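Q: Given only this backbone (542 positions), what sequence would you predict?
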């Protein structure tokens, strides 16, 4: 019986192929035998297209009947996998189970593409520099804990616990000799970046989530091509999902010019991406270990305000010159080693000595997080800063979907008399995410926070400022995706002068904002309420 069923299925498929090739015509016996004697004996000769289609549909009904008849069993098995074999937060588990309930079988396929856990993977190794880095970390920890007269600093004493946490959890060195320039406009940022690239003498390391082959990247490519011809090492690391619109032949062309490229999580077959939910969202540029860039700007014309859909693009990017560049360079090398399957730790002197004793500049720690690590370092930094706030918290984020811990911390801050200000865009680039954002922001509004929508264009700035003393800005949004799923990098800056500049920038943005009051939020339409509830329910999956 089994053999007969197999033969039946093969027969139906072969018949369907024959039907497609002949466009429904009957095939003469002589012609069939003449052309296919080495592959078939003429068994299918004379079969009409109606019979072929009926046989094929009968097989589909058989398979479909088997799947639907055992649907409850399949769903139970899939649910067991989601609950017991993957370590996830409870609300994320419930969201996936809900999806599995409403979309049986297909829901699990979505889970395989979007929800598999990467925490157990050891992706980034740096054994070649661990001893050196550990020595620096332990030395700095000792100096911070000993409170020697020369080590006391009023600017960082208040945040000593956070500095120690970053040191202990990830080896994020505190450097004190940094010069920082804040860019809020894409044209100014990329003009400065291109000028710094022109001054490169050793190497240029670029890492971006999105790179589009448009007018902006062509400007950058001209400089990179010129520097590569001069003997400067140029490396570009890009995310497969973020750069899916760029053809492979374009990257090969860059390779032919001497520009090295590497793809993070490349597609398996063509554009088939099996790890679509895990994205390298980092934006890093390091030039000669002297200058580093980190922030929210990707590479594309919309970031210059040239896309009519978004209008003016408001973002925040930091240019850092000093010891903190070491942290950006280390992060780039780890990502490059994984994606390119090379080891830059042994290939050359790409990491210079860390200067942790110079006290004449801004104090900075470079922190990073990703789904390969159970520690949510950037989320934890946000939490520590929120809990430590005494007067004011100013948050900018395009996506505001916090987890329960961050939401609770903000609620506690509000009820403790801390002024909490949150700024989001007035327009969505992802509608589901936007309405989930609006829902969470509404909770803060009703609790007493001051919340605003940026009306001048699209707000893509990511970070927070606390008490005009410290700020944490970079690539991470204030959402679950950036906390758990994306590979992110932020800079924590302990400097009152720079924090005041960031606060002043927030104040200038308020001039182009509309405030969401308790009255306006309570009077929103039924349509908006329904959108909020649906999107909030799906927020752990967004």
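A: Predicted residues:
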């Amino acid at each position: 019986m089994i053999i007969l069923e197999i033969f039946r299925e093969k027969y139906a498929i072969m018949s369907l192929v024959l039907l497609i090739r002949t466009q429904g015509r009957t095939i003469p016996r002589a012609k069939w035998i003449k052309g296919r004697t080495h592959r078939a004996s003429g068994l299918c000769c004379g079969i009409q297209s109606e019979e072929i289609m009926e046989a094929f549909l009968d097989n589909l009904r058989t398979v479909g009947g088997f799947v639907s008849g055992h649907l409850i069993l399949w769903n139970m098995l899939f649910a067991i996998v989601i609950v017991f074999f993957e370590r996830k937060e409870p609300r994320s588990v419930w969201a996936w189970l809900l999806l599995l309930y409403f979309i049986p079988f297909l829901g699990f396929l979505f889970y395989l593409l979007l929800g598999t856990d990467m925490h157990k993977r050891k992706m980034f190794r740096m054994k070649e520099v661990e001893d050196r880095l550990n020595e620096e970390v332990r030395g700095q920890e000792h100096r911070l804990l000993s409170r020697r007269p020369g080590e006391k600093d009023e600017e960082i004493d208040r945040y000593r616990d956070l500095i120690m946490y970053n040191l202990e959890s990830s080896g994020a060195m505190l450097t004190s000799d940094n010069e920082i320039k804040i860019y809020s406009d894409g044209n100014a940022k990329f003009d400065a970046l291109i000028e710094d690239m022109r001054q490169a003498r050793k190497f240029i390391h670029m890492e971006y989530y999105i790179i589009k082959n448009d007018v902006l990247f062509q400007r950058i490519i001209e400089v990179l091509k010129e520097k590569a011809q001069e003997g400067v090492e140029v490396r570009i690391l890009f995310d497969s999902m973020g750069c899916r619109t760029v053809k492979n032949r374009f990257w090969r062309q860059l390779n032919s010019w001497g520009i090295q490229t590497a793809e993070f999580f490349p597609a398996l077959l063509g554009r088939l991406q099996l790890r679509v939910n895990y994205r390298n969202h980092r934006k890093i540029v390091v030039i000669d270990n002297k200058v580093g860039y980190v922030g929210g700007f990707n590479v594309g014309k919309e970031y210059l305000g040239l896309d009519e859909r978004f209008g003016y693009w408001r973002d925040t990017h930091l240019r850092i010159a000093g010891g903190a560049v070491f942290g950006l360079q280390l992060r780039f090398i780890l990502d490059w080693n994984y994606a390119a399957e090379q080891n830059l730790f042994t290939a050359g002197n790409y990491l210079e000595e860390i200067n942790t004793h110079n006290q004449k500049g801004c104090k900075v720690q470079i922190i990073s997080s990703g789904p390969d690590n159970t520690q949510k370092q950037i989320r934890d930094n946000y939490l520590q800063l929120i809990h430590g706030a005494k007067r004011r918290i100013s948050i900018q984020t395009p996506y505001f979907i916090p987890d329960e811990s961050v939401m609770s911390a903000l609620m506690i801050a509000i009820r403790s008399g801390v002024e909490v200000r949150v700024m989001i865009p007035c327009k969505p680039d992802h509608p589901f995410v936007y309405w989930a954002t609006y829902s969470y922001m509404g909770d803060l509004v009703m609790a007493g926070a001051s919340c605003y929508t940026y009306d001048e264009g699209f707000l893509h700035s990511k970070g927070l400022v606390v008490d005009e003393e410290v700020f944490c800005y970079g690539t991470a949004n204030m959402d679950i995706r950036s906390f758990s799923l994306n590979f992110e990098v932020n800079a924590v800056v302990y400097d009152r002068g720079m924090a005041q500049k960031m606060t002043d920038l927030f104040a200038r943005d308020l001039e182009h904002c509309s405030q969401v009051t308790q009255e306006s939020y309570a009077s929103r339409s039924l349509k908006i309420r329904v959108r909020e509830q649906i999107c909030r329910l799906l927020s752990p999956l967004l």
